[in-house]
Amino acid sequence: MYLEKIKLMKLLSVKKRKIAILFTAGLGDTLLFVPLLKELKRKNFHITCIFYSKYNNDCLLDSGLVDSKKYITGKVSLVLYALTRARYFCNIYINHLGVGNLINLSAFICSKRITKTSGFSKKGTLPKRIKAVNPNFSDAEQNLHLLYTEANAVIKNIADFYLPKPMHSNSHKYTFQINNAIGYFIIQVSAGNNTSPFKNWPFKNWLILIHRLCKTFTDFEFIIVGDDSETFYIKDLEDLDCINCTILIGKTTIEDVFNLTAKSNGYIGLDSGIMHMAVVLQKKTLTIFGASNEKSYGYGFLDPENQMVITTSLNCRPCSNWKNANTSRVTDPMQCPDFACLTLIEPDYIFKKICAHFKL
After folding, report:
1. What is the DSSP string of 191-213?
2. Which residues have a Cβ under 8 Å from the Cβ of 21 and sit 6 or more positions away?
3. In the β-sheet with 114-116, what is the strand arrangement from edge to edge?
4. Domains in the chain, start-ordered, CATH in brackets?
5. What letter would DSSP give residue 347?
6. Contact call for residues 48 and 23 (beta carbons, < 8 A)
7. Strand 18-23, strand 220-224: pairing
8. Burial (Cβ within 10 Å: 0-12, 13-18, ≥19) of residue 165
9. 3-class secondary structure for 67-135?
10. Contacts 24+ apart (CB under 8 A), 149-154
11. How many CA atoms lie within 13 A of 106 on its CB side?
12. HSE-up of residue 27 (Cα within 13 Å, Cβ side)
């Protein structure tokens, strides 16, 4: 009888340690879960990551952080998966991006305990455990708050984001034009899948900046990366005719960019997933922030020596934020008439900041 009780206790212990995290967004939002994943792993939870997203972001989360992965491609698949995992998890964590009745219902089927950043409809009858939104938290801290109290969810160390640097077999597939370059920088000229003008510095400014960087620092290579939504920039970048500029827009996988970034001298760009990738790889970054909130998505407050954030001091920004957005000028950042928070930043200013930050 005693041995049977011991076995039962072990079974219950395992059951109570099965955790699921629902991922519903892009690369950057996935990497903002890293501190939470590390804490769950430190507490010996068995972590299942459910990727309900069109983006292939799971490749960066290896067995050191994740025990199992599930890929959901549609609404029907999500419900079917939930039915096969009825009451399987002791808890499911969902951040503010995981909204909708179908997500709520599927989570409820998998686990009676659902911890969310944002709540269900008031008319809903599903059990819920809602964590209050803290306007002073970064998004990574808001995710960590799913596990901890507000006092314990504060992130004070940039190392909480760091990931290993795996080099896949295809990491050598790109040969650059200057074989004797002493190093290279990763540059991205667009963000938000090219659908967020309030994040994007004018492309004409990028052309001026990249040309000047290439002609001034001929011993370095400048690698331009981006996804398929940015391919129409390629022609103008090629017209710069810079021998030390390699354009890989639309030619790389997430693994490729991860490996390239891991070996680089740093990242220059915008509030994008690749910026977050550079941070988890312990790289120096220089990031131009427009309407989005650098306190929610940037890392300058944690590591100002290595993570430089460029902003303007306009009273109307940041107007793009899911919590307490600045609506003094516009209620929707897409409706801004001039995107002055970006257009007022001159290429010469960014060039000087790059030289100082990367000690060129």
Report:
1. -GGGT-TTTPPPHHHHHHHHHHH
2. 33, 36, 37, 47, 48, 49, 50, 92, 93, 94
3. 68-71, 46-51, 18-23, 91-94, 114-116, 129-130
4. 13-155 (3.40.50.2000), 183-357 (3.40.50.2000)
5. H
6. no
7. unpaired
8. middle
9. CEEEECCCHHHHHHHHHHCCCCCCEEEECCCCCCHHHHHHHHHHCCCEEECCCCCCCCCCCCEECCCCC
10. none
11. 24
12. 23
Q: How many CB atoms lie within 10 A of CB 44?
A: 8
For tokens 């129409």, name the residue: 232
Contacts 24+ apart (CB under 8 A), 327-336: 333/196, 333/198, 333/291, 334/196, 334/197, 334/198, 336/197, 336/198, 336/291
Whole-prediction pTM value?
0.90
What is the block-wise mean pLDDT of the chain (360 residues), using blocks of 10 residues? 42 68 92 96 94 83 89 92 94 91 92 79 60 92 95 96 72 58 93 90 98 96 94 96 93 90 95 95 97 94 96 95 91 94 98 98
Task: Indicate the SS3 state at residue 287.
Answer: strand
- Alpha helical stretches, state H, the chain: 2-15, 27-31, 34-42, 75-84, 101-110, 139-144, 203-216, 234-238, 254-262, 273-280, 294-297, 340-343, 347-357
Contacts of range 68-77, beta carbons closer than 8 Å, 24 or more positions apart = 75/102
Beta strands 285-288; 267-270: pairing state: parallel
Residue with tokens 């590591």: 303
Residue 284 contacts residue 266 (beta carbons within 8 Å):
yes
